[in-house]
Specification:
The complex is a heterodimer. By secondary structure, chain A is mainly α. Chain A contains eleven helices and two strands, in the order ααααββααααααα. Chain B has one domain: P-loop containing nucleotide triphosphate hydrolases (Rossmann fold). The termini of chain B are far apart. The chains are: A mainly alpha, B alpha/beta.
């Protein structure tokens, strides 16, 4: 039983990180209508910035905050320079641009910080927290779970209840009508990217202490986050985050209980993506937009 | 009273579609002006030129202020609400969110509740469906939502692009009745593009007739509908009420 609980919490914790990544995907999807395949790489790049700051002697929390700000600004510029020229392009072209962005950021991170695996300090204490007599959990695991809850609540509130959140949703839904009601769509697109990068940075600094930091760190989380977002529904911040958590728990359980489970756990992400798309394309909580014609 | 809108020698190119060749007309303040003409005459293009969505030359002044060459979002903030061709509803958003977006530019945010009440007064159906996704509304309801959204902006000028299109005759009749109420009660100037000229001339006080990108006639609604030649050539000869049209 203790072993099960331990696995559950580990699963929830890594699921929480997928949930944050999934949220970053949802933010860009909801404000621009694109699935940013380079989101994982952006998060890794942000984590490297945080790592550099920590190396320079900046305490971890200010370093995270500063990283979020830098990521926000960097992503706004990236959107302007790299994505904006393809605003009117076909979906296939957009996918190609994102793959290019993925490779570009990956190599840039490798070129600047090399491919050596680096340890990354936890934002929480290094110790463990005793839950019951024979169950103790690492503080980082609990801390990242808590962080997930905060980020999730803040994102949901932002999109649901603020003017800016509404304007972002409107821009994603219909560019032309948004401009006609006075929304500066071009600003909103950049804002969506900035927010997603800041959220992604949080995911990066939460996962790096667990997996260690290297330029390839972002791939697996992105795949699991994408599976989670699709499972929960990529139009719904709540659904996508829940999907991320489910994927995390599933991953932990399969690794723990299925023989050779660790070897093929990434396969479950693929199977999930496929089955969701086949059975319920909008995801569990997504909104399949019905239009009358 | 300053006219709501004055177009002087306005030309526009737009895709492969209609082109405007230096058109002139005026929308008097607080009145409804109809912009008539056949398919491809440049009516929609004129509206798109007014709200800054296409490259335009010439002079377009809104209550005395030149707006030619400005961005659509700026023009919207200056008090122009466009109900576009195809209604332009935010189909993935709720009816309520659509209306909230309408008030995005409203200068006085404290009046949101009162304006919303007035819009629900004109269109009770929107209140019943306020939580529904706009994309699931019927065509008539979407048109109501588009007009409601425009009213939420508390605009000085409303541009209406073919509100009757694709709607059943009985719905069109209701809609135009409501538009008449709005025109009477809100004091807002309107520029109405319509193919159904009988309907349009009934609502409007004056009208401009376009043919392949040029103005061919202008006058009060009465003058235009009485002019036999114009009526025969451009407005459709059939003086019978439009309900019988299929």
């Amino acid at each position: 039983m203790t072993f099960f609980l331990e696995q559950l919490i580990i699963g929830l914790s890594s699921g929480g990180i997928y949930a944050i990544m999934a949220l970053a995907l949802v933010v860009i999807y909801k404000s621009t209508g694109h699935v940013n395949l380079a989101q994982g790489e952006l998060a890794v790049f942000s984590t490297f910035i945080a790592w550099t700051l920590v190396q320079m002697g900046v305490p971890i929390w200010p370093a995270i905050l500063l990283t979020m700000i830098v990521s926000f600004i960097g992503a706004v510029i990236l959107e302007r320079v790299v994505i904006r020229p393809f605003d009117e392009a076909d979906d296939l072209v957009i996918v190609a641009v994102f793959v290019g962005l993925f490779l570009g950021i990956h190599s840039l991170a490798g070129a600047i910080w090399n491919y050596e695996v680096k340890p990354f300090p936890s934002a929480f204490s290094d110790g463990s927290v005793q839950i019951v007599s024979d169950l103790s959990i690492r503080a980082h695991t609990l801390g990242s779970l808590l962080t997930t809850c905060v980020v999730l609540a803040a994102t949901w509130f932002f999109f649901r209840y603020t003017r800016l959140g509404l304007a972002l949703r409107a821009s994603a839904d219909n560019h032309e009508s948004s401009r006609l009601v006075g929304i500066n769509v071009s600003f909103m697109l950049a804002l969506g990217w900035g927010l997603a990068a800041a959220i992604g940075a949080i995911a990066g600094v939460m996962i790096a202490p667990v997996t260690f930091l290297d330029p390839s760190m972002g791939l697996a989380p992105l795949i699991f986050a994408l599976a989670g977002a699709l499972l929960g529904g990529i139009t719904s911040p709540f659904g996508a985050a829940l999907g991320g958590l489910i994927v995390g728990v599933l991953e932990a359980m399969i690794s723990a209980y299925v023989p050779y489970g660790i070897e093929f756990r990434e396969l479950i992400a693929l199977l999930l993506i496929l089955s969701v798309l086949l059975v319920k394309p909008a995801g569990l909580f997504g909104e399949l937009v019905t239009r009358r014609v | 009273m300053t006219p709501a809108l004055v177009l002087k020698d306005v030309s526009a190119t737009y895709g492969h579609g209609a082109i405007l060749h230096g058109i002139d007309f005026e929308v008097p303040g607080g009145q409804v002006t109809a912009l008539l003409g056949a398919n491809g005459a440049g009516k929609t293009t004129t509206l798109r030129a007014i709200c800054g969505m296409i490259q335009t030359s010439g002079e377009i002044s809104l209550f005395g202020e030149d707006i030619c060459g400005r961005k659509p979002e700026e023009i919207a903030r200056m008090g122009v609400a466009h109900v576009p061709d195809g209604r332009g509803t935010f189909s993935g958003l709720s009816v309520m969110d659509n209306l909230r977006l309408g008030s995005f530019t409203a200068r006085d945010r404290s009046s949101f509740g009162r304006t919303l009440e007035r819009v629900f007064g004109y269109f009770p159906r929107l209140e019943e469906r306020k939580k529904q996704h706009a994309g699931t509304l019927s065509g008539g309801e979407q048109q109501m939502l588009a007009i409601g959204r425009a009213l939420m902006a508390e605009p000085r000028l409303i541009l209406l692009d073919e509100p009757s299109i694709g709607l059943a005759p009985v719905i069109v009749k209701q809609l135009f009745q409501i538009l008449e109420d709005i025109a009477a009660e809100e004091g807002v100037s309107m520029l109405l593009v319509e193919q159904n000229s009988n309907l349009a001339l009934k609502l409007a006080t004056n009208a401009t007739l376009l043919e392949v990108g040029s103005v061919v006639a202008r006058g009060t609604s009465e003058e235009l509908s009485k002019n036999q030649e114009i009526a025969r050539a451009y407005l459709g000869h059939d003086p019978a009420p439009t309900e019988v049209q299929q």
